[in-house]
Amino acid sequence: MNLRQLEFFVVLAQTEHMTQAAKKSNTSQPNISHAMTMLEQEIGVTLFEKKGRNIQLTRHGRIFYEYIAPALTEIEKGQRKIQEMVNPDSGEIQFGFIFTMGANLAPKLTQSYHQNGNHKIKFEFQQGNSNQIIQMLLADRIDIGICSKVSSDPELIYQILTQEEMVVVVPLEHPLANYDNISLAKTTQYPYVYYSKQSGLRPYLDRQIKNLKLDLDIICELEEDHSILGFVGQDYGIAIMPNIPSISSFPVKKLTITDIMDDRNIYLAVKKNNLEIPVLKKFYDFCLENTNKKWD
Asked: Which of 137, 140, 145, 139 is nearest to 109 (CA)?
């Protein structure tokens, strides 16, 4: 049993005429007849019987039609829905991004995309840390994501989208608040509020601290940037974090780091199979073409 046989069956049931059914199905009468013979053999009952020059459904055929006709209608609806979703001019995109990208880059990209002739595209957004974004990608809960590269899963493709500048933040009344620029070696005598292991930033920070041969006094670990800023603002400790716009909303001082550090890369991540979907490929290419690789 295949979809084409079922489509022939429904048309024949509705027209009750072999020639009309063949014409409506854009095929030949022998094709319709052969398909019905194969369908009846598979089901094990006669679906049609002759009535003069026409044919009509048998009792079993009517029962079969009651199930198949609405099922084919639902299949057609599903096909239309998927076609609408993947249409590059009017489809849907599930877009996920890490918290720091929600303040600037993610809204800039989506707004710019809409303004560049793609206003019919519908976005739905998800936020989380990098590990959560990657899990959402792998589970098909989102189509495309902005995150750190904390997984080398072969299903995913990563492209560098931008870099984040890292800064030190200290309480306003802290001794280090007298500086505008600082080497991290001068901060090690003070307690640190640090990113937890659930954060995509943690492996990068650990690597930089190790490269600089520093030993930090970490008194607490937190996952999210604003929580880090909240604890620093309450004089709980100092922190190294991305230079995000919301720093200015907290009672902290931002210091430029003078040490040479590796680029903090932020990636555009997508499942390989998703790049075959027109609406996603179009937005993916737009993001890569319209993002400065260096921070603002």
From this structure: 145
Residues making up the chain, counted from first to last? 296
Taking the C-alpha atoms of residue 250 and residue 38, their distance in angstroms, rounded to an integer, is 74
Report helix, strand or coil for 37. Answer: helix
On whether the pTM is more than 0.90, the answer is no
Sheet holding 239-242, edge to edge: 181-182, 252-257, 166-171, 239-242
Phi, psi for 257 (deg, rounded to 5) = -85, 125
Tokens of 49: 């019987």
Phi/psi zone of residue 140: left (φ > 0), alpha (ψ -120 to 50 degrees), beta?
left
Tell me the per-residue pLDDT of 40-53, one tens digit each, with 9 for 90 and over: 999 999 999 988 87
Positions of the chain with pLDDT lower than 70, given as ranges: 84, 292-296
Query: Cβ(61)–Cβ(48) under 8 Å?
Result: yes
